[in-house]
């Protein structure tokens, strides 16, 4: 367990690489969550000589407060909390809108490159920190449909109470810190700058040796 504040996403990636060393040069793909997960995932991919890809999911906000998540959606999966008072039409419209946004975002990041084929492979799903975990759970549900051998989730920080949820929903869960008092992911980094689209695009285009 790593108990100090992390310097930045690069250090987070280096420390997670150490915990994931057994996957070096194996039948494994790193799948990062944009935007913040991409710098962490890039460092892991580079250190372990593994290919890097991305997965997109979005939270579904409450109609009266968009910041309050009532669920999450990926390109072909959805997780919804039990909020029976929210009109079905609102949820359906949000899913259509968010999926359109995700499709545009994916094309912006990787162009017309096809996603990696993950069937029968280990995938390491990487983010720069987990708060509620809803959007990541939607991504896990989507990736499961593609029949990978194993789903490993790797993150620098997660609230203590959320750890059992991820242990239950993954084949392996790797993390550095699980504090009982959790005020937000940014509180566990010295530098937690906004990752811009431009940086994501650059990192995804950098060559990674898989030898």
What this model shows, in words?
The protein has 211 residues and is an alpha/beta fold. 35% of the residues lie in helices and 22% in strands. It contains six helices and eight strands; from the N terminus they run αβαββββαβαβαβα. The chain has helices at residues 9-19, 37-48, 88-110, 134-144, 163-169, 197-205, and strands spanning 28-32, 52-54, 57-62, 65-74, 78-80, 122-126, 150-157, 172-177. The strands form two sheets. The protein has a five-stranded parallel beta sheet with strand order 2-1-6-7-8, with helices on both faces. A three-stranded antiparallel beta sheet has the order 3-4-5. Strand 3 and strand 4 (65-74) form a beta hairpin. Helix 1 (9-19) packs across helix 2 (37-48). The radius of gyration is 17 Å and the shape is globular. The two termini are 30 Å apart.
Low-confidence stretches: none
* Content of β-strand: 15-25%
Specify the structural class: alpha/beta
The main β sheet shows up as: 5 strands, parallel
Gross geometry: globular
Please report the total strand number as a whole number.
Answer: 8
Query: What percent of residues adopt helix (DSSP H or I)?
Result: 25-40%
What is the CA-atom radius of gyration, in angstroms?
Answer: 17 Å
Q: What is the terminal separation in angstroms? A: 30 Å
Overall pLDDT level? 92
Structure annotation, total helices: 6
Instruction: Give the SSE order as H and E letters.
Output: HEHEEEEHEHEHEH
Strand order of the largest sheet: 2-1-6-7-8
């Amino acid at each position: 367990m790593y108990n100090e504040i992390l310097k930045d996403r690069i250090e987070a990636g280096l420390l997670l690489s150490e915990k994931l060393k057994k996957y070096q040069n194996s039948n494994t793909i790193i799948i990062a969550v944009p935007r913040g997960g991409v710098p962490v995932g890039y460092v892991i991919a580079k250190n372990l000589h593994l290919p890097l890809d991305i997965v997109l999911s979005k939270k579904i906000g409450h109609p009266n407060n968009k910041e309050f998540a009532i669920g999450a959606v990926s390109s072909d999966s959805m997780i919804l909390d039990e909020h029976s008072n929210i009109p079905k039409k609102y949820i359906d419209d949000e899913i259509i809108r968010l999926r359109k946004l995700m499709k545009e975002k994916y094309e912006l990041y990787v162009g017309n490159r096809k996603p990696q084929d993950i069937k029968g492979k280990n995938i390491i799903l990487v983010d720069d920190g987990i708060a509620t975990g809803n959007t990541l759970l939607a991504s896990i549900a989507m990736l499961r449909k593609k029949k990978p051998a194993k789903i490993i989730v790797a993150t620098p920080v997660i609230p203590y109470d959320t750890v059992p949820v991820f242990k239950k929903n993954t084949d392996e869960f790797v993390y550095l810190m699980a504090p009982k008092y959790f005020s937000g992911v940014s509180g566990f980094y010295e530098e937690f700058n906004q990752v811009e689209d431009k940086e994501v695009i650059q990192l995804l285009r950098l060559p990674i040796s898989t030898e």
